[in-house]
Amino acid sequence: MCQDVFCIISFKHFEDCFGVQYERIPIRGNGFCGYNSLSYCLTGSQEHYVSVIEDCCTVFGNYPELLYERTNFGQGIQSPDATSQYYWSMRTAIRRVQSGEALNDERDQVRWLDEAHLIAISLLYDITIFLLQYSIKDLVGIQRDKC
Q1: What span, in angstroms and rounded, lies between the C-alpha atoms of 91 and 126?
Q2: What whole-number distance in Å separates Cα of residue 18 and Cα of residue 12?
Q3: 3-state SS of the chain: helix, strand, coil percent to 5?
Q4: How far apart are CA 79 and CA 40, in angstroms?
């Protein structure tokens, strides 16, 4: 039985209680880190984040309730053309990121990856997405001698 969830092997590698080893992949922190992560998982490269965003927009166009109910953007705009507004808002954000700007401002939070984006990609590609979320502080607290 597992006593700890993860054991630190090195700062870049860790192991779960079943002995499965994982590697931490550095992801660009430009405000699109969630899309960059999905892009990496789907294609092996962070460079295809625009396709991930466009795929999400496609799903939201077909299922606007997903946009309204599961995104910060949709909860703020409940209009019939919210999906179009979202698409153009994201196109603007993409141009900003491509020009080197980071989406770190409070007003940019509506463009960050939400639960709805994970659902959209899961639906579109018929995949299951598992999310491991932890902080370095949590990992440092794990006792190495129990590994």
Answers
A1: 25
A2: 18
A3: 55, 5, 35
A4: 33
pTM of the model: 0.81
Q: What angle do CA 94, 50, 25 make, to 5 degrees?
A: 105
pLDDT digits (tens, 9 = 90+) for 87-119: 999 999 999 999 999 999 999 999 999 999 999
Element (H, E) at 120: helix 115-125
Beta bridge partners of residue 22, listed in sequence order: 14
First vs last C-alpha separation in the chain: 12
Instruction: Name beta bridge partners: 13.
Output: 23
To 5 degrees, how large is the angle CA 110–CA 68–CA 113? 35
Q: Which residues pair with 6 in a beta bridge?
A: 16
* pLDDT tens-digit series, residues 14-47: 777 788 888 888 899 999 999 999 999 999 999 9
Spans of all domains in the chain = 28-131
Which tokens is 7 given?
Answer: 């054991």
**Amino acid at position 41, single letter:** C
